[in-house]
């Protein structure tokens, strides 16, 4: 059974840093794209950052220059380093994994809370 296992997240003061990671377990095809969406209370889920298996990255305008996504092809995982966090970065962060044959998987979500 395929699972996306997320780790990291937590509570931090504004200006601080957090790191969230995601790795696929089980038999799964290599990924074409991995990344994170986040959902704040009362808001729609939005794309935060993504990375392809060739290393191309994409970021939401609101996090550019503060967040960095990286990949680990061997572990079929990725990490999101979040610096200079703001209260508006608060939300549940969901990892996603798109396989090279078109399958998709989601993590269970991890809470990130930034206090002012």
Entry keywords:
mainly beta, seven-stranded mixed beta sheet, 116 residues, four-stranded antiparallel beta sheet, 11 strands
Question: In short, what is this structure?
Answer:
The chain is mainly β and 116 residues long. The chain contains no helices and 11 strands.
Would you give an account of this structure?
It contains no helices and eleven strands. It is an all-beta fold and 116 residues long. It is globular, with a radius of gyration of 14 Å.
Secondary-structure blueprint:
Layout: E1 3-8, E2 10-13, E3 18-25, E4 31-39, E5 46-52, E6 57-59, E7 67-72, E8 77-82, E9 91-99, E10 104-106, E11 110-115
Parallel strand pairs: 2-11
Antiparallel strand pairs: 1-3, 3-8, 4-5, 4-9, 5-6, 7-8, 9-10, 9-11
Rounded average pLDDT? 93
CA radius of gyration is 14 Å
Percent strand equals over 45%
Give the beta-strand count.
Answer: 11
Give the ordered list of helices and strands.
Answer: EEEEEEEEEEE
Sheet bearing the most strands, described? 7 strands, mixed
- End-to-end Cα distance, whole Å, is 40 Å
Structural class by sheet pairing and helices = mainly beta
Helix content: under 10%
Global morphology: globular
Q: Report the total helices.
A: 0
**Low-confidence residue ranges:** none
């Amino acid at each position: 059974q395929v699972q996306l296992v997320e780790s990291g997240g937590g509570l931090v003061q504004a200006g601080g840093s957090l790191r969230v990671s995601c790795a696929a377990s089980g038999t799964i095809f290599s990924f074409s794209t991995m990344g994170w969406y986040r959902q704040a209370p009362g808001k729609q889920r939005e794309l935060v950052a993504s990375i392809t298996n060739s290393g191309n990255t994409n970021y939401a305008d609101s996090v550019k220059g503060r967040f960095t996504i990286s990949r680990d092809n061997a572990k079929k995982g990725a990490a999101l380093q979040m610096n200079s966090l703001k209260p508006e970065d608060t939300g549940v962060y969901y990892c996603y994994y798109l396989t090279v044959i078109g399958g998709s998987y989601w993590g269970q979500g991890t809470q990130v809370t930034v206090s002012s």
